[in-house]
Amino acid sequence: MSTRDVPITGEPIRLGQFLKLADLADNGSHAKDLIDAEEVTVNGEVETRRGRQLADGDVVSVGNENARVSLEH
């Protein structure tokens, strides 16, 4: 399972925002539904907080899709 880097312009970014940015969720409502259903993991652990702050290098997974937070320098 490959992990793709998703560039962000500044840290931190909230999980709900990152799900949309990484195309892992269609919109904010979809992101909330995925998180509420415990279908989202951050660094291999189920995350239930939409406002979770993500940092450079964190890996977010939904199903078979993985996206890594990549801070643009």
TrEMBL record:
Gene3D superfamilies: RNA-binding S4 domain. Pfam families: S4_2. Keywords: RNA-binding. It comes from the Bacteria. The keyword Glycoprotein does not apply. This is RNA-binding S4 domain-containing protein.
